[in-house]
Write a structure and sequence with these properties.
The protein is an alpha+beta fold. The protein is built from 8 helices and 9 strands. It has a 5-stranded mixed sheet with strand order 4-6-7-9-8. Strand 1 and strand 2 form a beta hairpin. The radius of gyration is 30 Å and the shape is elongated. The C terminus is likely disordered.
């Protein structure tokens, strides 16, 4: 009889039998000990694997509960926040009619306490509504219940048209925004609404975090099967660790002041989910005082038969 044991416990015994009068040789005894040792290792690894699988199952269950909770709370908050927004707009009209709030932008009036307080009320209400909408959008994308609607998009004209608003915004913040699109850039067949949401979110972040005097750029390159879109800005520095975590839900870069810039920490998570839905990839590249997002999308998106096509 040889014990099956390791450095932590005895798992059992290994029994061997020979005819009466026979004895085990030294070589046989060493072999039995080796077999018992290997059995102990296998048993321990099996128990560890079972424990790890149980932890994974529990984490998946908790993650589903978290997602269900956020989705339920978001749905429950949308109606009261919509009512709050409507009441705020009606209150603003009434206060302007009474002359308490200025009817037009006025630097002098904007310094009054009532004007500042009312502006805080509007901004924070809009921020809460944006958070709720982002949560609901993520829940909808996770459920994968809405089909994509495919369109053939000429990026050479579509991207400059999309960027018109951001060009004016960048100029107002003393930033420069440049576009580099090759003349032979092919059309891309994808969901235009999803692609617009992706680029708009990345450009919003770029305009928000780019310092005065720095630049923002958008470029595109094509291969035989994919198109690479690059959206970057200068004047910011983040670490490689932050590049890896930047697409996590609710993750905020520690060295950026959340009270200064606002935001929910869901924008880039939503971008990542939208890119996944378009069968693409996205990653962040950090360099010397610059940050760049690289999106790889298929030129033609292949969808299951259940998806819509226009």
């Amino acid at each position: 009889a040889c014990p099956i044991r390791d450095d932590q416990r005895v798992w059992g015994d290994l029994w061997l039998f020979k005819p009466a009068g026979s004895v085990f040789s030294e070589a046989e005894l060493r072999l039995v000990e080796q077999v018992a040792s290997q059995c102990a290792i296998a048993l321990r690894q099996s128990r560890l694997y079972q424990a790890a699988q149980a932890q994974v199952t529990e984490l998946e269950r908790l993650n589903r509960l978290k997602d269900d909770f956020l989705s339920t709370v978001s749905h429950e908050l949308r109606t009261p926040m919509s009512n709050i927004k409507m009441a705020t707009e009606l209150l603003e009209l009434h206060l302007k009619h009474l002359g308490i709030l200025p009817s037009a932008p006025d630097n002098t009036a904007s310094s009054l306490p009532v004007t500042r307080y009312f502006q805080i009320l509007k901004d924070e209400g809009n921020r809460e509504i944006a958070l709720i909408n982002d949560l609901l959008d993520l829940a909808r994308l996770d459920a994968n219940t809405e089909p994509l609607v495919l369109l053939s998009i000429d990026l050479k004209t579509w991207i400059p048209s999309l960027l018109e608003t951001f060009v004016a915004r960048a100029q107002a913040h003393q930033q420069s925004l440049t576009i580099q699109l090759p003349a032979d850039l092919p059309n891309i067949t994808t969901d235009a609404i999803y692609l617009q949401r992706i680029l708009s979110e990345l450009l919003n972040n770029a305009c928000k975090y780019t310092p005065i005097g720095e630049r923002i750029w958008v470029s595109a390159m094509a291969t035989a099967t994919t198109i690479a879109l690059r959206i970057g800005n200068s004047g910011v520095t983040i670490s490689d660790v932050e590049c890896d975590r930047i697409f996590e839900r609710f993750y905020r870069i520690p060295n950026h002041d959340p009270w200064k810039h606002g935001g929910t920490g869901l924008g880039l998570a939503l971008v990542k989910k939208l890119v996944d839905c378009l069968q693409g990839t996205i990653h962040a590249e950090a360099g010397a005082r610059q940050l760049q997002f690289v999106i790889q999308l298929p030129i033609y998106l292949n969808l299951p038969s259940t998806s819509a096509y226009t």
